[in-house]
Amino acid sequence: MIRQGPILSIERLSKSYPTGFWRKPVRVLSDLSCEVHANEIVGFLGPNGAGKTTTIKILNRLAFPDAGKVTLFGGQVRDGADVRRRIGFMPEQPYFYEYLTGGEFLRLCGQLCGMSRADTESRSSELLSRVGLSGARDTAIRKYSKGMMQRLGLAQALLHDPELVILDEPMSGLDPMGRMEVRGIIRDLKAAGKTVFFSSHILSDVEALCDRVIMLHKGRKVAEGRVEELIGAETLYIELVVSPVLPADRLAAAGIPPDAGYAQGALLVLRAADNEQANRWIAGLLREGGTVLSCVPVKKGLEEIFMERVGGSDSTGATS
Ligand SMILES: Nc1ncnc2c1ncn2[C@@H]1O[C@H](COP(=O)(O)OP(=O)(O)O)[C@@H](O)[C@H]1O
Ligand SMILES: [Mg+2]
What we know:
Elements: E1 8-19, E2 24-36, E3 41-45, H1 52-59, E4 67-72, H2 80-86, E5 87-90, H3 102-112, H4 117-130, H5 146-158, E6 164-168, H6 176-191, E7 195-200, H7 203-209, E8 212-217, E9 220-226, H8 227-231, E10 235-243, H9 248-253, E11 261-264, E12 267-272, H10 275-287, E13 291-299, H11 302-310
Parallel strand pairs: 3-7, 3-8, 5-6, 6-7
Antiparallel strand pairs: 1-2, 1-4, 8-9, 10-12, 10-13, 11-12
Helix pairs in contact: 3-4, 4-5
The protein binds adenosine-5'-diphosphate and magnesium ion.
């Protein structure tokens, strides 16, 4: 389906929460504007406390901004129920009726969003198997681990086959295998023509997955763009891995300054500033009896971009 304009548009959103005994308002979102277009995977990045969950709650009408507005599907929605039908939402801390089984919970969700019983049953089976919970269908949710809850939350968000999927920290609480599976599900959603907007404080997940990222810090947008544009072609340095660890005099004879790298077990790791320097060093190392095991240009990652943009100020949690 070809759609004009963004699927989701956020314009100049601001929000404060009253805090402390005097209920002094503290800004958690300041003048945030951004857009999400059809069939994009957009990562919403920022350290803990940046305002990601607050923004996502506003999108889902679970919180309300002090200023600014959110437009969904170009404003072509009649009411809240219409929005809920077209959006799949997984909250950061999914709350479940613990005495239900996973299967019963999805049946309830299907009823709540007006799906037929037959549709709910077939979609539930498909999704429970997709998120790796087929075996836990008849297990009470109170016996689920955090990772299983997270997977059930994802199945719930996708049950009614929504056009736009909004996920708040979908990878948190998952082991590496689980994170890889969730990445696979997000990629499949894009392949099926859906749009995904998800928050994360894990930069590597976002870098691997997103068409575009929006970076938030202390409630303000600090960067936005296509991942390859933000990262760019810029090489930070060239890493050489050399064997064996040559003694200082032979390194000096090879033209390598003493502070160019470090020994890691039986290997020597060097950082050359550019191709010319790397080539000169390689020639010198070979002359002095070293073997160059690898030579890799290291590019700027989202982490460096984030640190550049926030100027090294308090960015706790950005890389955790
Ligand atoms: N209901 C609330 N009342 C008061 N402060 C809140 C509330 N919800 C969030 N905050 C504060 O708003 C800031 C942003 O929180 P949040 O949106 O959860 O960030 P993130 O999801 O990026 O970690 C935090 O400082 C948090 O303590
Ligand atoms: Mg959050």
